[in-house]
């Protein structure tokens, strides 16, 4: 029988279901995850009358377009990929909610909080929701139980994304096989899902790539006029300690090549004062021999020789005007030398 002329009938999604889908996805596209961007509910099997919750995913208009584009022989974003993105995103949303709930529950009475924690865990156990149980115990401090449920979840067969997520709760992303990590990265790269890539790289401790992809996603948010998303991910990146991580990496590579000045600058930015003093003292003869105007006062301060530090700072101050005065208008007919003397 020819399919021609058979049009799939659109049936409006019942309000209760669409509310639940939006809740699970935090009103955010599960692929690009740019918070605050307008979204719609997508039917994964492309049958607009199939409103089963398993068939629905929240997508922004741009990512929805990818479900219709053909790249090579396949769709740019097919059903299987959307299901993976949706599961991965739902996991992140649930985890962030648990952390938020814990913060809120601290304001209620201790007894009520204990009751809340145990009854939530019971309900999750009944549903054999191992992944959520692991997150639950991670949030409420039951480390042994968290590890027990991480093992159970992984043994019961999880996606590569789930395994990486769970292992990174333990700080053990290194336990995830390399081919699984590459699988995640190549999927996210293909779909230009920069913010997801940023998070993936952060989990595997690849900070230069984490910062690069967070920034690409943040730039995309700004270009799209979406300041909320830009601010949200910028905050997340800073809270994850990305700034210090980059200074630490730079410090490591400068130490390897013995570049003293940039080691000093990294240590200053990191606020690692005792390491800084120890380095300067160890390099004392090198610094004194070089007569380095910037390093000398730092060295004397590290040595506790205040008078010599002040003399060195004065020399530094006296030299400061050399370049900045060079753009001053020269007096007519007079050379720079003459002007300085007057
Ligand atoms: Zn999107």
UniProtKB/TrEMBL annotation:
Signal peptide: none annotated. Residues 324-336 have a biased composition (Basic and acidic residues). InterPro entries: HNH_nuc. Residues 315-342 are annotated as: Disordered. It comes from the Bacteria. Residues 17-65 form the HNH nuclease domain. SMART domains: HNHc (SM00507). One of its GO terms (molecular function) is endonuclease activity. The keyword Nuclease applies. The keyword Signal does not apply. Keywords: Endonuclease, Hydrolase, Nuclease. CDD domains: HNHc (cd00085). This is HNH endonuclease. It comes from Koribacter versatilis (strain Ellin345).
